[in-house]
Amino acid sequence: MISKRKAFTTMVILVVFTAFITFSVSNMMALNIGNKMIISHEMYQKLIEENDNMGKVVQLKHFLMEEYYEELEEEILIDGAIHGMFEAVGDPYTTYLDAKDMSDMLMSTQGVYGGIGIIVTADEDGYVSVVSPIEDTPGERAGLTTGDRIISVDDEDVSGNRLDDAVSLMRGDADTEVKLEIMKRNQEKAVEISVVREIIRIQSVRAEIMEDKIGYIRVTNFDEKTASDFQFEMDELTRQGIDRVILDLRNNPGGLLSSAIRMSDLLLDEGLIVYTEDRHGNRKEEYASEGHYEMALVVLINEGSASASEILAGALQDHEKAILVGEQSFGKGLVQEMQQLPDGTGFKFTVSEYFTPSGRSIHDKGIEPDHVVRISEEELLESQGQDLELQDDIQLQKAIELLQQRQ
């Protein structure tokens, strides 16, 4: 009896091959004569080459299934081939996801998942590196900080661009323990730590009123609820007569592009928010149209502010809607899309690069603040473990000072 998974896999291969033939034939000069089609020799050769490549994959799979000294599962070979195809791209943000990882990924965009609460990326040396810990999570309480490298998870090596493997291994059921081998910044010897997983429920927006009736809004990441929660807090501040606000995006690793665009729309009266450009030069632009709030605004950023944070900060800076204070941001300017397949697996892949309204590329460059205020290494480490006291947070103090001048 043919299993549902095997039948689905066979169907996928046939659909992909048929789709290729359909796409290829529909995009060439062709002449129909009755039930025959005449195509150019060049396109005929291209079809033959592609058919040979697909045939090679199928032939090698059959060879292993028949000749390997132990019995093999066809599903594992096919999954491995698909994983390898995505890994061959050489982009840590382009990856194939099994059903569990895909489910976890979808859940995390809703602000809930089981894990330790850190955001990671692949650094220039191929190591899994911490972008920032999420506030009040096991990762933050364990002392993980921006720039820490994760060497292994539960004794499994995750170096060498194994970003998604590391993420998958760190996630899991609440109250279970995960062991990490960490190389701390500016240290030469790795250390081992054990962290107990929790259900991470991210409250991405919180607000308060500070001295001199200055509003303060902290945004920790961009999920499905962030823009609406931000609007609620801004409405509350407006209702209380607040017209000066500090927007804190420090250690905000990003999230949903749509959420950052929606927040930008709330703060900008009009104009370009961001545009993306793919490898073919196709450009997609997002514009502001609402502009709910007329407030003096200072935005705090640092090296842990990435992706969607940089989109928002860059748009506000280019339109001179806000003053940026802090340190140069992380510099992740690539756009990913995610798709789920009928069997529950899926994939994410980089589709374009984004640019600020003035045309600045952020990738590997980051956003430079208008007022550079550096926090020392010791203060940075302390701020990752718990918020600095107000008088010790010199970046926040600078923001307050700038807004006090706007009275």
Plain-language structure description:
The chain is α+β, with helices and mostly antiparallel strands and 407 residues long. It has three domains: 84 residues, no CATH class; 89 residues, PDZ domain (Pdz3 Domain), CATH 2.30.42.10; 202 residues, 2-enoyl-CoA Hydratase, Chain A, domain 1 (Alpha-Beta Complex), CATH 3.90.226.10. The chain is 35% helix and 26% strand. Strands 5, 6, 7, 8, 9 and 10 form a six-stranded antiparallel β-sheet that branches. A six-stranded mixed β-sheet has the order 12-13-14-17-18-21, with helices on both faces. The longest helix is centred in the N-terminal third of the chain and has 27 residues. The chain is globular. About 6% of the residues have low confidence.
